[in-house]
Design goal:
With about 350 residues, this protein is mostly helical. Helices cover about 75% and strands about 0% of the residues. The protein is built from 14 helices and 2 strands; from the N terminus they run αααααααββααααααα. Strands 1-2 form a two-stranded antiparallel sheet. The longest helix has 28 residues.
């Protein structure tokens, strides 16, 4: 072989090796990969502990259905955290949206919505979305226009939305939910085994994936999270964009409230105390940085199932359910610590 050909072959081999090394380094540094491995490890662990219960079709369906509303919260939270914000109110907004939706359907049905038709159900869905979006709009205006820190604004909304729901119902759950809603969206399945709630959550998640990763809206979201002032000087309307993101997050929380209403057949006012923590934990575990500018919807999807699997696994393993928020909190702190270490390593280069 001529010297020139040997040199070219050697250069090509070096390029391939460098590319493989670079890919390996990116995979090793990927939070999404490690989160996926943690999820697989948890599934294997609980399957080994309860092989008769955990890996069954019924349990998988139940796990997916219970994770669907949380996934809607996490998708919205992904957008917010990428902008270097936070929304602590999503769990309470979920409850509020479910309450106003259920009460509206009940009012339209003369006090008993059990036999209500799809016209009433669709109005209930609209009310849930609008109710959630209005809370999100309020959060966005206070954060982006009034310049109040997002932590304080959404902490206030957390209490206010839950208090409003309790005032509307006197703290008593609304239980007359349309049977048609429960049979189709709540407990119905398509393709023999796929729950309809999961299909709805998957469609919304795919739309969010497209919005964040392929559109100008998504690029602006990353730009604001990386450097809001630089984004403003480059012509991005930062204030309007932040208001839109918080409104979107509120609307998704409203959808989650309607999904919860369809599944449980009641408003479950006191049943979502950990949703805020679980949504934030899912997003951070999925690789979205609390400091902004970094994150993916795919990572958040994987992150959602860690609290869900822990919850189901602890119940089946006979562990007291009070350990679940402790475990999620510990994992969340560890994820933020690792994120800070990576940031310091990047900044020191």
């Amino acid at each position: 072989m001529p010297t020139e050909q040997r040199t070219q072959k050697s250069t090509a081999d070096e390029d391939v090796a460098a590319s493989a090394k670079s890919l390996g380094a990116r995979l090793t540094a990927s939070n999404t990969l490690w989160t996926g491995l943690v999820l697989v490890a948890l599934c294997v662990l609980f399957s080994a502990i309860r092989p008769d219960a955990f890996p069954t079709l019924f349990n998988v369906q139940n796990l997916l259905v219970q994770a669907a509303p949380l996934l809607m919260l996490a998708v919205g939270m992904t957008f917010v955290i990428i902008t270097s914000g936070i929304d602590l109110s999503v769990g309470s907004v979920l409850v509020f949206a479910g309450v106003v939706s259920a009460m509206t359907m009940e009012w339209l049905s003369d006090g008993d919505a059990t036999n209500a038709g799809w016209g009433v159900i669709l109005i209930g869905l609209l009310i849930a979305l609008v109710g959630g979006a209005l809370w999100g709009l309020l959060n966005g205006l206070l954060v982006a226009v009034a310049r109040v820190p997002a932590l304080i604004v959404t902490l206030g909304s957390f209490g206010a939305a839950l208090g409003a729901a309790q005032l509307l119902t006197n703290g008593i759950d609304v239980r007359t939910v349309p049977g048609a809603l429960r049979k189709t969206l709540g407990t119905g399945t398509s393709f023999v085994v796929v729950p309809n709630l999961v299909i709805l959550a998957a469609v919304i998640t795919l739309l969010a994936l497209w919005l964040l990763h392929t559109t100008a809206f998504g690029r602006y979201t990353y730009a604001i999270g990386s450097n809001a002032e630089a984004a403003r000087r480059s012509g991005i309307r930062v204030t309007r964009h932040l208001v839109a993101i918080y409104t979107l997050t509120g609307a998704l929380a409203g959808l989650a409230g309607f999904m919860s209403l369809a599944y449980f057949g009641t408003t479950t006012i006191s049943g979502h105390s950990n949703d805020n923590l679980n949504a934030i934990a899912a997003v951070v575990l999925g690789g979205t940085s609390l400091f902004g500018g970094i994150g993916t919807v795919v990572g958040s999807v994987i992150g959602v199932f860690i609290p869900a699997v822990l919850d189901a696994g602890f119940v089946m393993a006979g562990v007291r359910p009070f350990w679940q928020p402790i475990a999620v909190g510990a994992v969340l702190v560890a994820a933020v610590w690792l994120d800070q270490r990576r940031r310091r390593a990047r900044n020191s280069r």
